[in-house]
Queue: 2 jobs
Job 1
Amino acid sequence: MLWIGLPLSFGVALLMVPAGVRGLVDAGLVRGNYRGRSLAFPLGAVLATTALVALAPLAFLNDRADLDLLDPELRRWIPYLLGVAFLGFLDDSLGQGTQPNAPRGWRGHAHALREGRLSTGAIKAIGALALAAYVVSGRGLQSFEYLADVALLILATNLFNLLDLRPGRAEKALVLLGLGLCIGAWTGEPVELLGIFLGPVLVGAWFTLGERAMLGDTGSNLIGAIAGVWLLTTLGESGRLIALAVVLAITIYGELRSISKAIDSFPPLRSLDSLGRVNE
């Protein structure tokens, strides 16, 4: 019965996400993408709201009818998922991302802090650290394991923010990660745990690939949080350390170099990256 979260959230998303995209456009909430097209923004706010709408009946039936509809571990992780989505929404709404001199990346935000300026990006990073430290606590981990898991959760969230520079890229990376974890560990736990969030993300990908909407930091943070939780809950201790090393390496590369250029230089990745996009 735990699998019901994905089909239910997918069905709700089919109704809510198109309406949400139209609502963003009607409200004038649009932003130019990398090709200069004005798209509904931020789609991530619609995705997070859709997940909550799907959660409402499941939570009620899970408690009142004593049905196994939600993974008990969802209570631990949902504050992080919604918390980082909210922090991303704060950055989308109040940040200075469209201004030429706005701080970008960890180095940019750290430089702003040294100058006495607290950017919304820095607030987002500090808030995500606090949330990660909270949700990872109480799992009986040794100090090193605890710090490593907090770092993995934060870096995974940030990595998908770095990936979200082309339509559908973050969603494709999430799907590939989910498939790899499910097949590698031979388990459906990732889908069972966070199915209510996965459904809206899959429907939302139709609109990002079609260049009708952009995730914003709200959406990329939410997708990155899903990925981070999947890594923490599916992998063993050694696997999580390997994942941390990989995520850290890609993050450092993304801060110093262009991930988009690296993808474009490798034909198989370039083909996968452009798959499903309009005009590509």
Job 2
Amino acid sequence: MRPGVASGQREGYVAALTGLWKRLAWALTELESIAADPSELFDEQAVLERLPPLQYALHASSELALGLRPPAGAEAAHAELADALAGARDATAEVAEVLELGGAGVAETLLPEWRGALFRVRLARLRVATPKPLPAEPSVEPESPGHGDALAATVLAVSGAGVFAAGATLGLWPVWALGLALFASGVLVYSPRP
């Protein structure tokens, strides 16, 4: 595909998503306010009157998302958005049905799942709106010291400490100086890199 065609397809897709989100934003905000306050459910009649147009907004947005053709590279994020919209629509319908048939007490048990479904829509929208970063060049990691270096450093440090202690106890400065040198060489042999 030519760059100009791909750019035009992406711009058309972004414009369609912007329109979808403008239609959906108010409904999602209203649904989240109902889901956030369990006491609202106890005014069952008012909530049951508010839910149908909000459910329809989710349904229409879900259908619109299914009708969009995402540009190359955005297929997975777009599929996640369409799935999240369908999930939020279904969770809202379930809450409305349970509220109508079982009352607010029973519907309240569905609130965490409903809130999760509504949040998933916002998360999916964020993933669609945020383009994936270009792959970075592979970084060249410095070679990590092997286990042999660590073992040699440990042996030098322990033996250096022992020789130093013996020299200090016996009062022989050349021996304790040798111990210090062995200990210091252990540090030089192995120094961890960040």
